[in-house]
Amino acid sequence: MNRPLTLRSARGSPRAQPQATPPANSRPWVPDSRGSLIATFMVWVLIVYLAVPIQYFSGDMDVAGDTSMSVPHPLARAIKLGLLALSTVILVWRSRLAWFELRSVNPFFWVFMALVPLSVLWSIDPSATMNRFVSLLSIVSVCFAFALLGWNRTRFQDVLRPLVTTFLIGSIIFGILYPQYAIEVGEGTLKDSWRGLTAQKNQFGMLSSFGAVFWLHAWFNNEKKWWVAFPWIALSFICVLLSRSSTSLMATILSALFMLLVMVAPSNLRRFMPYIVSAFAILVVVYALAVLNIIPGTSLLLDPIAELTGKDMTFSNRAVIWDIIKEHIQLAPVFGSGYGAYWTGPLPSSPSYAFLARMGGFYPTQSHNGYLEIVNDLGFAGLICLLGYLVFWVYQSLQLMKFDRGQGMLFLALFFQQAITNLSESTWLAINSAFAIAVATLATFSLSRSLLEQRLREYFRQPGRGGVR
């Protein structure tokens, strides 16, 4: 019996040219829908498990807002290990394709996956770091397995968009039936803000922002008619407003404007799109570095933004949190204090316990800046890795836009949404915002799979859409 093609010559950068016609005895290109329902089920379970407080499933709704995180919930542990085991089986089953996908994924992502477990060696709480790494590994393995099963051009949004929409509908219903759980009762900006089915208002705002981006893309890219997309776009924006998350609102608006710019740009300006995208990405990174005070004097460039928004440089008045984190970073600036080792709960044994005394009993659970969080956990080595990851995300998205403008636009819109969100929220590898990690990781693997799929089609000289057996 003939052996399958090794595809060794199909590897390489997205610019690799098509190779010679495959040998006559190689297997033909065929659609591959095997396991698509399994992969969809895994992703849905993962997102639900990460977004909804686990106490809602066990009936302990009154303690769903507990942020101690000191005692892992047994149901959460069972779901996490179950997903890890199932995804491992899939990776072994599709090991041949997994090898090519692994080599196509953003290389800085794998640097992160090496740096995180290595941080156990210098972590201030090795057990916490290892526990968080296992949680991260379960997310990564599910996303990796998803890219290997039942692939098609729009699979990424086809799986996530209905799930996020269901979340938003469920949150509205939940808020009407159980307002004491779905609506904050605090003071100031927290009062009457919605958190829906999530644990916090900012998480609900982020989830709503994902919904807006997915549905706006579906309309811009002609995947859905306007009369189908507009009600869900409206629902998503209403949920963003109900969350009262200014960060989510700003990230959603800017992502929407970017997609609009890509779609309405005349053909003679499209060749300049890489430069426009790169300039926008550089501005976001400069703002992040200015907040960190890494580049002296850059804050002067951002004063007009502060004046236009009517807020300070934090966009949310979180300078006190940042100052405390920066003081802790000075203890281990190169490699940090260990992944997930700082925010282990308001416990005397944790250095984050200092927030209770310095902020009047308030415990924020995160640094409220994803770039600062990375430096705190993994040092400036981690920040360099993050910047490389972001640059490669933009690079791969621009490569994808050369032959699939709609999909490239979606991944770039998600990049800008997450890059902006992390200016005042922590989602880059932050387990406290794990469902955002799942979406970003799923985008990372889906982006690389889209590029790999194009190279394989070129190799097999097949214009249609299919998969590799």
Write a compact overview of the structure shown.
This protein has about 475 residues and is an all-alpha fold.
Characterization of the model:
The protein is built from 18 helices and no strands. α5 (107-118) runs antiparallel to α16 and α9 runs parallel beside α11. The two termini are 15 Å apart. The chain is mostly helical and 469 residues long.
Biggest beta sheet attributes: none
Q: Which stretches are low in confidence, meaning pLDDT under 50 for 5 or more residues running? A: 1-26, 65-70, 464-469
Secondary-structure element series: HHHHHHHHHHHHHHHHHH
Indicate the mean pLDDT.
81
Strand content: under 5%
Proportion of helical residues: 55-70%
Number of helices: 18
Shape category: globular
Radius of gyration: 22 Å
Which oligomeric form is depicted? single chain
Distance between the termini: 15 Å
Number of strands: 0
Strand-pairing-aware structural class: mainly alpha
Key terms for this structure?
single chain, 469 residues, mainly alpha, 18 helices, 61% helix, globular, disordered N terminus, disordered C terminus
